[in-house]
Amino acid sequence: MSTEVRVPTLGESVTEATVATWFKKPGDAVAVDEMLCELETDKVTVEVPSPVAGTLAEIVAAEGDTVGVDALLANITEGAGAEAAAAAATPAAAEAAPAAEGGDAVDVMVPTLGESVTEATVATWFKSVGDTVAQDEMLCELETDKVSVEVPAPAAGVLTEIVAPEGTTVEASAKLAVISASGAAPARAAAPAAAASAPAAAATGKDVEDAPAAKKMMAEAGLAAGSVQGTGRDGRVMKEDVQKALAAGAAAAKAPAPAAAPRAPVPAEDAAREERVKMTRLRQTIARRLKDAQNTAAILTTYNEVDMTEVMALRKEYKDLFEKKHGVRLGFMSFFTKACCHALKEVPEVNAEIDGTDIVYKNFVHMGVAAGTPQGLVVPVIRDADKMSFAEIEKAIAEKGKRAREGKLSMAEMQGGTFTISNGGVYGSLMSSPILNPPQSGILGMHKIQDRPMVINGEIKIRPMMYLALSYDHRIVDGKGAVTFLVRVKEALEDPRRLLMDL
């Protein structure tokens, strides 16, 4: 029986890829999930695993070929050589099997981390060596640049070995630990074999063929082989590695960055009372992206204020009926989301992004909703928010917020946003200037509702007021467009019936 190997989903807006490297050749035995080849897109590198065990019968797309999504890459003959493939894929495990009482040792591997994420840091182990674990019980937590990932036990048994202790940086598909299904400790012979494999891999690292696209780009740029640090499998230089090297060289030639100022001397009595904690990967990424946004975009902020009287009255009148029918509370975020979607239709450049010398207008709204978590700020995305009802928006925000606080958001849930709303009012903020979430061109800052005296029809009245702030990229959004957007949001919130009438 023959099984087809096809190009997997490459990610949002990516329609084709280049076959960079084949790790197998026709006639080779392959195991299930063993890596067959590596594809390069203009954004990420994608590894293609084997869907079945068997023998690689035919390679349809050779190295250097450009293929579309779902294109045929190869054919695998199932069954033939499956046992050999399993043995070849895990020789160390095969050798250790007899000593581990019938080969009952189960490896705990790094789970799928998400598109473009190649490594993670082991943050916390919930179990220790010798502990009994149940299947699907949480063993440890990994931190990536964007999300926290919990690793469940693939089988019940005893945790016999922790390969990657806390603080270790591990690559995708690396081994984290070993579980003995029978409760017996595995033979230690496998450890020297694993240790011996590391020097061997390092010794042969530069014999690995670099990706075709990377070699072509290095030749065009006049870069010598070995001058670029590779991040691909076994140190293979990928296209993005060359791009980073060229960008770093250009930046250094243009303006050498000054060294970071050393920390001022601290008195001994103060130093003894300090605590130094390494920044999490998520916090490092937040810091880097925020600074990149300031360095890249021409960020400007415009302000307005909105009278929340009508929204609060409408919410008070219908909140009980709304919750009874839809099973979710009626909050303010659905009103603001609807108002922003309405305003983005009139001022589409606020919902657009710059791509080189092009402006990409989005005929949809994927609304990012900034959420503070114990790990840091994350921005889950409500896709096609412009097509949602109030109830659908409230349910989506509640569900995403809960997953964010639990650290269970996936990469896909935080990608593709076209506009962002940040609500600092829940923390008591009266006024702020939010920073853009690249590559977006606009972000709306909400703030606390405060009773203030306002002049209404010549009379002074107390009204619940909120300051609104729109930060925007002045490279693409003019002042007129930004002010118009904020005025439309204000009008929709001060008279919510405009949202129903599409006015």
UniProtKB/TrEMBL annotation:
Cellular component terms (Gene Ontology): cytosol; oxoglutarate dehydrogenase complex
Domain Lipoyl-binding positions: 2-77, 105-180
Record field: catalytic activity: N(6)-[(R)-dihydrolipoyl]-L-lysyl-[protein] + succinyl-CoA = N(6)-[(R)-S(8)-succinyldihydrolipoyl]-L-lysyl-[protein] + CoA
Keywords: Acyltransferase, Lipoyl, Transferase, Tricarboxylic acid cycle
Cofactors, names only: (R)-lipoate
This protein's pathway: Amino-acid degradation; L-lysine degradation via saccharopine pathway; glutaryl-CoA from L-lysine: step 6/6
Leading EC class: transferase
Entry's Gene Ontology BP terms: L-lysine catabolic process to acetyl-CoA via saccharopine; tricarboxylic acid cycle
Keyword Transferase assigned: yes
Bias type Low complexity, positions: 256-269
GO MF annotation list: dihydrolipoyllysine-residue succinyltransferase activity
EC number: 2.3.1.61
Cited InterPro entries: 2-oxoacid_dehydrogenase (IPR050537), 2-oxoacid_DH_actylTfrase (IPR001078), Biotin_lipoyl (IPR000089), CAT-like_dom_sf (IPR023213), E3-bd_dom_sf (IPR036625), PSBD (IPR004167), Single_hybrid_motif (IPR011053), SucB (IPR006255)
Region (Disordered): 256-275
Domain Peripheral subunit-binding (PSBD): residue ranges: 209-246
Function field: E2 component of the 2-oxoglutarate dehydrogenase (OGDH) complex which catalyzes the second step in the conversion of 2-oxoglutarate to succinyl-CoA and CO(2).
PANTHER family given in the database record: DIHYDROLIPOYLLYSINE-RESIDUE SUCCINYLTRANSFERASE COMPONENT OF 2-OXOGLUTARATE DEHYDROGENASE COMPLEX, MITOCHONDRIAL, DIHYDROLIPOYLLYSINE-RESIDUE SUCCINYLTRANSFERASE COMPONENT OF 2-OXOGLUTARATE DEHYDROGENASE COMPLEX, MITOCHONDRIAL-RELATED
UniProt similarity note: Belongs to the 2-oxoacid dehydrogenase family.
Assembly notes: Forms a 24-polypeptide structural core with octahedral symmetry. Part of the 2-oxoglutarate dehydrogenase (OGDH) complex composed of E1 (2-oxoglutarate dehydrogenase), E2 (dihydrolipoamide succinyltransferase) and E3 (dihydrolipoamide dehydrogenase); the complex contains multiple copies of the three enzymatic components (E1, E2 and E3).
Name used for this protein in its record: Dihydrolipoyllysine-residue succinyltransferase component of 2-oxoglutarate dehydrogenase complex
Taxon lineage: Bacteria, Pseudomonadati, Pseudomonadota, Alphaproteobacteria, Rhodobacterales
